[in-house]
Amino acid sequence: TNPTPPPSGWPSPNGSQAVTSTISVSGTVDGGLKRYYASGDMGDGGQSESQDPIFELANGATLKNVIIGSPGADGIHCLGSCTLQNVWWEDVGEDAATLLGSSSSQVMTIDGGGARSASDKVFQHNGPGTMIIRNFQVENFGKLYRACGNCTNSYQRHVQMSNIVATSPGKALAGINTNWGDTARFSNITIKNDSSHKIVICEKYKGVP
Ligand code: ADA
Ligand code: CA
Ligand code: CA
Ligand code: CA
Q1: DSSP 46
Q2: Ligand 1: residue whose CA is nearest its atom 13
Q3: Which residues line ligand 1 (CB under 6 A)?
Q4: Distant-in-sequence, close-in-space partners of 118: CB < 8 Å, separation ≥ 6
Q5: Among 18, 36, 68, 106, which has the minimal tally of Cβ within 10 Å of its Cβ?
Q6: Are 133 and 161 in contact (CB under 8 A)?
Q7: Strand intervals (E) in the chain
Q8: Cis omega (within 30 of 0) for bond into 5
Q9: Which of 124, 189, 139 is nearest to 163 (CA)?
Q10: Which domains are assigned to the chain?
Q11: Is omega for the bond preceding 71 within 30 degrees of 0, making it cis?
């Protein structure tokens, strides 16, 4: 096969919009590469777990061409299957995006875009199902993906990553709970500027409900 290389270079925003309450998305929404950032009491983008998402996607929704600025609060939530296409996080907040929902057949697809400055997690998988991350770049991060280690539903979760460029500093591409049957698949992974080999591909955890 001849994989599509991930996009390189960060987009410059077409203007900025302060978001003071979560924007609900259903169907397909094109953000026009505007920068959206949290304002008011949404959250400061630190590590507090009580922050609001900037966007919340209904099952079946697609959000494309969006830049999440700073503060990023709790990023983007998906309530079921969803697609994030060409979405960029300039300074990841508590995390960048979360898959919630309750169907084992749901799929969240992140295609294109990138994330930087994530103190901890970028993509957080709390519901069951599969997260697909492709054509994506990440730099200065904790984990690119984490299957929830303490969610009360001990779901099986799956992740597939392809065409990823991860630039140091970073800790791990994926963290999964092998006791719950989680799986992770990787293809075409490029690690950059990591001469002391600190970035781990997959960390295996024991999930505790
Ligand atoms: C942490 C926390 C989880 C969940 C998650 C999230 O991993 O332990 O319970 O809150 O963050 O959704 O951000
Ligand atoms: Ca969290
Ligand atoms: Ca950050
Ligand atoms: Ca979160």
Answers
A1: S
A2: 49
A3: 49, 94-95, 98, 124, 126, 148, 150-151
A4: 89, 92, 95, 96, 138, 140, 141, 142
A5: 18
A6: yes
A7: 16-19, 23-25, 28-38, 55-57, 61-68, 76-78, 82-89, 97-99, 107-116, 121-125, 129-147, 157-177, 183-192, 200-205
A8: no
A9: 189
A10: 16-205 (2.160.20.10)
A11: yes
ipTM: 0.98
Residue carrying the six token digits 């591409």: 173
The per-residue pLDDT for range 49-99, each reduced to its tens digit, is 999 999 999 999 999 999 999 999 999 999 999 999 999 999 999 999 999
What's the 158 CA to ligand 2 centre distance in angstroms?
A: 18
For 140, the token pair is 């200065």
Distance 77 CA to ligand 4 centre (A): 9
| Confidence band, pLDDT 50/70/90 cuts, at residue 2 | low
Q: Kindly report the protein residue whose alpha carbon is nearest to atom 8 of ligand 1.
A: 150
Angle at 11 between CA 10 and CA 14, to 5 degrees: 155
Do the beta carbons of residue 132 and residue 123 sit within 8 Å? no
pLDDT digits (tens, 9 = 90+) for 108-129: 999 999 999 999 999 999 999 9
